[in-house]
From TrEMBL:
Stated name of the protein: Amidohydrolase
Transmembrane among keywords: no
Organism: Streptomyces physcomitrii
Glycoprotein found in the keyword field: no
UniProt xrefs under SUPFAM superfamilies: Carbon-nitrogen hydrolase
Length: 276
């Protein structure tokens, strides 16, 4: 699988302009024979949705989205999804002009400058899905910070975890160094779930947020095999050996004994004690 990390900026609320940026990026990736192009979280809308004067959400099957995969490579794009009654922070996987899978962000941060629950509802499912190039799953930004989700994706057979992200720095005095947290977190996910991790962060500024880029790919042994520059737009193309996942999981079978019964019983107990 040849993956292109599309570390891009975007125009807040301007879906058409951002779609045009995505189209040009996909064409550039196609020229490098990429199989999949991965864009950041909310790449077609921007992050500060509260500053957009009207609802610009779009459906997962919007022709502007499906057309992105007609240039050759598959495309993973982030957008504010019109789900009918509710809106979602979503990432769709598109192949040959069709939507193969849509992931709706499950864990929406509501602290510091992040106010996602004002503009999106949380998703309700995590599913791995088959692509023409391997089995994958998507974790949008804060989803990857929840330890159970990468594990569930791996147990569902995911060989590649796509992690589209809007991670920023400098939001508040004393805030954590998000770049450092992401560095350690991504390596841990790759090592413990023994899979490829494709992290694509955006660049640019919105309000107080400065998005730092630093997109990267980590192999099933936890080694960073490619990294984009920080704070500037870039297209980074990387070859992933999907067979390495099976080899690594056979060398050290960490995932084989899942104990789903044990997990189910303990989760049920916690819920019965009042934990939601």
């Amino acid at each position: 699988m040849r993956v292109a990390l599309a570390q891009t900026d975007c125009a807040l609320g301007d879906v058409d302009a951002n779609t045009e940026t995505a189209r040009r990026t996909v064409e550039a990736a196609a020229a490098q024979r990429a199989d999949v192009v991965v864009f950041p979280e909310l790449s077609l809308h921007g992050y500060s949705l509260g500053a957009v004067p009207q609802d610009e959400s779009i459906g997962a099957h919007d022709p502007r989205l499906t057309a992105l995969s007609e240039a050759g490579p598959d495309v993973l794009a982030g957008f504010h999804e019109d789900g009918g009654l509710r809106r979602y922070n979503s990432a769709g996987y598109y192949s040959r002009g069709a939507c193969l899978h849509t992931h709706r962000k499950l864990y929406l941060p509501n602290y510091l400058e992040w106010e996602e629950r004002k503009h999106a509802s949380p998703g309700h499912a995590l599913r791995a899905f088959d692509t023409p190039h391997g089995r994958a799953a998507t974790l949008i930004c804060n989803d990857a910070w929840q330890p159970v989700l990468p594990w569930l994706a791996a147990q569902d057979g995911a060989e590649v975890l796509f992690v589209p992200t809007n991670s920023a720095s400098g939001l508040a005095p004393g805030a954590v160094d998000t770049a450092e947290y992401w560095r350690d977190l991504l390596v841990n996910i790759a090592r413990m779930q023994q899979c490829w991790v494709v992290f694509v962060n955006r660049v640019g500024n919105e309000g107080k947020a400065s998005f730092w880029g630093g997109s990267r790919v980590i192999d099933p042994w936890g080694e960073v095999v490619a990294q984009a520059p920080e704070e500037s737009a870039a297209l980074t193309v990387v070859d992933l050996d999907i067979g390495a996942v099976r080899r690594r999981r056979r060398e050290m079978p960490l995932l084989e004994e899942a104990r789903f019964g044990l997990v189910s019983r303990e989760v049920a107990r916690l819920m019965s004690e009042g934990v939601d």
